[in-house]
Description:
The protein has helices at residues 13-24, 74-86, 109-112, 130-146, 163-178, 211-223, 257-266, 284-287, 318-335; strands at 3-8, 29-36, 44-47, 50-53, 55-56, 67-70, 90-93, 124-126, 148-157, 229-236, 243-251, 270-272, 293-300, 307-314. By secondary structure, it is α/β, with parallel strands linked by helices. It has two domains: 3-127 and 321-335, 3-Layer(aba) Sandwich (Rossmann fold); 131-316, 2-Layer Sandwich (Dihydrodipicolinate Reductase, domain 2), CATH 3.30.360.10. 47% of the residues are buried.
Amino acid sequence: MGYKVVVAGATGNVGREMLNILAEREFPVDEIAALASRRSLGTEVSFGDKTLKTKDLDTFDFTGWDIALFAVGSEATKIYAPKAAAAGCVVIDNSSLYRYDPDVPLIVPEVNADAVVGYTKKNIIANPNCSTAQMVVALKPLHDRAKITRVVVSTYQSVSGAGKEGMDELWNQTKAVYNPTDDVPPAKFSKQIAFNVIPHIDVFLDDGYTKEEWKMVAETKKILDPKIKVTATCVRVPVFVGHSEAINVEFADNLDWEEATDILREAPGILVVDKREAGGYITPIECVGEYATYVSRIRQDPTVDNGIAMWVVSDNLRKGAALNAVQIAEVLGQRCLKKG
Ligand SMILES: NC(=O)c1ccc[n+]([C@@H]2O[C@H](COP(=O)([O-])OP(=O)(O)OC[C@H]3O[C@@H](n4cnc5c(N)ncnc54)[C@H](OP(=O)(O)O)[C@@H]3O)[C@@H](O)[C@H]2O)c1
């Protein structure tokens, strides 16, 4: 006995990974539906060793379905998530639409799984931004030990964070660099991304920060602790999959880098790779297809009384999106829902 599960956005970067991860982790599925836009009607997607044909989200009836994993962007979510929720299907949403709604829990299971019970207010649970998810996994065990007061983070975010169009743009521009007769002007990104880095993700806000940077601040406060001060600089880099973050953390209590390393080694969802020699750290290409949040380069920050610096890398399509959503579904199933 299991659940009737819907994946909305099944033809996208995150939706395809959701189907992979549901199959890999043997989530108890009695029946599964893969949905996308009408453009993709009948497109085949893989679910373990099965092939599913995608159906149209617009005409899908959610009545009788238990859980819907949504990865369709905010505009489509606004239309279809309330319909699914009203039909009694619990929505786990990857867009930013509901993340800051006080009646919707925002969950990273390694950090605040207990918040799942709050789903009943709207029948919706939100999944955080990819950069926030991996950062709070690394911050949580350190916060429990020494109370984090301030975080300074710079991100190095892969193009898959901007959907399949972002990946196509990097691929086509990279090829065009070697074939100057091709011209691939920026479309998804604001400047050329191939052989470049762009300090701009999502729209600019009045204070000069971008919305992506604001999300890291607001979501860390909601998931981990509203008292933690966070300042972020979010940068798009020409990497296909895998987000990296250089993080400086300040604590109220004393914590040296060796104890921080020991704590991180024991923490759920984390793998420490930190040899202090050439190659003794993780780079994004090595985290692709993995579940873990990797932590490397753990060292003292000598410019503050109690602080460390570290390098955190994870697969943004997995821990940053699809894996986290499936983990939420697992918690929901274990604690709140009855099977079929
Ligand atoms: N990529 C990441 O690292 C990441 C991390 C966290 C959260 N997210 C969020 O996850 C969501 C999906 O991102 P993605 O990277 O998977 O994007 P993507 O690769 O561009 O895929 C978008 C998916 O949404 C479907 N879709 C779009 N508009 C639709 C509509 N009106 N009706 C039905 N289906 C529609 C698309 O279907 P068609 O193929 O038929 O167009 C496709 O399956 C976004 O909200 C994004 O912000 C992404």
